[in-house]
Input
Amino acid sequence: LYQVLTTLCQLLAPFVPFVTETMYQNLVRSANQDAPQSVHHTDWPRTDSAAVDEDLLARMALARQVVALGHSARNSRNIKLRQVLARALIHLEPGAGELDEEMVDLVRDELNVKQVTFVDDASDLVTYRLLPDNKLLGPRFGKRFPAVRAQLAAQDPLAAVQRLRAGLPLHIEVEGEELELEAEEVLVREEPREGLAVASERGATVAVDTVLTPDLRAEGLAREVVRRLQNLRKEAGLNLDDRIVTTYEAEGPLADAIEAWRAFIASETLSVGLQAGPPDEGATIGEDQVDGHPLRLGICKA
Output
């Protein structure tokens, strides 16, 4: 960290000279009186290619791709990131790379899922539908085009997709004649299996389980309460380590969620007290809706 800060200080010096000078004096000169008197007297940092970890960069790039696909899958069903989900399912084509345990933990946290599971075949996550490319096959087959469309629909989708993605032509029979269709002439539509939202790109397919159990919904509500309490702390001008006493007014599933996740909410917001009821006198008050449920919060510095 020290090396990162001092190198960053040198890199930024031409653009923010006064701030970086203060940083340099505090970081470097205070610890080493033999160092140059000013950051502006130091040599420009040189790149150390030996320090580049290509394997780590590749693993991180794949992890970021998987996370981006997971976010895209969530967004396709309008599921907020704060809503915890049961699992993420990942399929990686040969050559796409691998995720080690460290990166899997990162993906789990970034996607806010309880479990990450790898599957051997993308067909475990999606079903396939074969359609003819109208622009290419319409002029080629003319009146026989509807029959071609029907024959494509009658194919085994998984076997056909595997063949097409291997670069092999697809053979169909129309009116007693065997026809050969190239991969670019057939459109493959992927549709998520029931209970999943899916996104895929460059050899990676990521699905998230969209089934929300009562426990998952309650945890999602609790996380929303935490976010609102954190915003209320900022509004009250509290320091990061200030303890607070929190009161809340809620009903129904929201009240149940707060009670069930009381310890989590208190820990995340540094609440030494978390009680149902009206706000104390002098409290900073916030009112909002959480997933359609009214919520009134009050906080006081403990």
